[in-house]
Amino acid sequence: MKMGQVRWYGKIKPQSTYIVAHDPSLGTGGNYAAIEIIELPSLKQIGEWQNNVTPIQQQVKILREICKYIETEQVAAGGSTSIYYSVEN
Questions:
Q1: How many angstroms separate the CA atoms of 44 and 67, rounded?
Q2: What DSSP letter does each residue of the chain carry, written as one string?
Q3: Angle, alpha carbons 57-55-9 (nearest 5°)
């Protein structure tokens, strides 16, 4: 499934924990910024985003949208929200 620029490879499970990791880039076209979404305990990558022209402020908004989507899906399925996130400095 594709939501905006985020590619999803699996559905959000209500009892799983998720890690969302952001590797920012200045968005000047040289390096790609990336956001990876990993499901625990399976350690499967269930989604990703990458772009090389998006400013960091927008990258953080995308990170937040991903976390909100995971939360909404877990709550809708009757689960509890369990999300950890990391941003490279």
A1: 17
A2: -EETTEEESSPPPTT-EEEEEEE---SSSSSPEEEEEEEETTTEEEEEEEESS--HHHHHHHHHHHHHHHHHHHHHTT----EEEEE--
A3: 85
Whole-number Å distance between alpha carbons of 22 and 11: 20
Closest to 16 (Cα-Cα) out of 72, 65, 74: 74
Please list, in sequence order, all residues whose beta carbon lies within 8 angstroms of the beta carbon of residue 57, skipping any fewer than 6 positions away: none
- Extract the tokens encoding 21: 């990791």
Question: Exposed, middle or buried: residue 26 (CB in 10 Å: 0-12, 13-18, 19+)?
Answer: middle
What was the pLDDT predicted at 44? 96
In the predicted model, what is the mean pLDDT of residues 11-29? Answer: 90
The mean pLDDT of the chain is 92
**What's CA 88's distance to the chain center, in Å?**
14
